[in-house]
Write a structure and sequence with these properties.
This protein is an alpha+beta fold. It has one domain: Rhomboid-like fold (Up-down Bundle), CATH 1.20.1540. The strands form 3 sheets. Strands 1-4-5 form a 3-stranded antiparallel beta sheet. Helix 1 packs antiparallel against helix 5 and helix 8 crosses helix 10. The longest helix has 22 residues. 37% of the residues are buried.
């Protein structure tokens, strides 16, 4: 299911959310200018750098070599350069990198849909800290699931999963307009946000359970998504219980008129 919009307005301009999207776009343009992938290798999160810091990481790749008998494919070994920062800090820098245009656009669209409302409840500074913390938590969850992996982990999806977890808690009565594939047809449907987000999380959990021990073959850091979502939900609950979130907003429609109404949550 692809979300198109939700029904919750934002009281403030989500400047931090826009800035995060802009930073990811800028980082991707820098990545595109580096066709050798050095940026990904240096700034992506590689779990084995943390679990085995003294063991060099060597990757194998195939290349064509000219011989007297013509071209021949040979296997070359290249040592991955060390990151310019402590390896553990790449658990954060990897959040701003992406592997393809579709990877980038998919993540940024989900962040655009759900991030503004979470920023509205947490405030600009609080949302920034929350987002970065979810990104780090997602990377560390991936590390725990496969500490020996030598594949760079990149993408904002773990941090965005944290935003989605917070949205689930902060807006339990919201709805999402989504494109839903029904066989060969694609239908636009209004879906309760808890169902949409709950189903998304369940899919990550199922995929992550099947991918245990096969993370390198799978190519997706499912447990980063799971960890980010759980941390986002729990942190939002703690902040709400401590009275550190703004009251949520719902749309009231008497007839054709629309207006905003502040609604106190159980902990407001």
């Amino acid at each position: 299911m692809l979300p198109l919009k939700d029904n919750i307005p934002s009281r403030t301009t989500p400047i931090v959310n826009y800035a995060l999207i802009g930073l990811c776009l800028l980082a991707f343009m820098v990545q595109v200018s580096d066709p050798d992938g050095g940026i990904t290798l240096k700034w992506g999160f590689i779990p084995s750098r943390v679990s085995k810091p003294d063991v060099p990481i060597v990757i194998e790749h195939h290349e064509l070599v000219q011989t007297p008998f013509g071209l021949r494919e040979e296997t070359a070994r290249t040592e991955v350069p060390a990151p310019p920062i402590p390896a553990l800090m790449t658990a954060l820098t990897c959040v701003f990198l992406h592997g393809s245009v579709m990877h980038l656009l998919g993540n940024m669209w989900f962040l655009y849909i759900f991030g503004d409302n979470v920023e509205d409840r947490l405030g600009h500074v609080g949302y920034l800290i929350f987002y970065l913390a979810c990104g780090i938590a997602a990377s560390l969850t991936h590390y725990l699931s496969d500490p020996g992996s030598t594949i760079p982990t990149i993408g904002a999806s773990g941090a965005i999963a944290g935003v989605m977890g917070a949205y689930l808690l902060l807006y339990p009565h919201a709805s999402v307009v989504a494109l839903v594939p029904l066989g060969f047809l694609i239908q636009t449907m209004v879906i309760p946000a808890p169902f949409f987000l709950g189903l998304w999380f369940l899919m990550q959990l199922v995929q992550g359970s099947f991918a245990v021990g096969t993370a390198e073959a799978e190519g997706v850091a499912w447990w980063a998504h799971i960890g980010g979502f759980v941390v986002g939900f729990v942190v939002a609950w703690i902040l709400g219980a401590a009275g550190q979130t703004s009251p949520r907003v719902v749309v009231v429609r008497p007839g054709t008129e629309q207006r905003f109404r502040r609604v106190r949550t159980p902990w407001d």
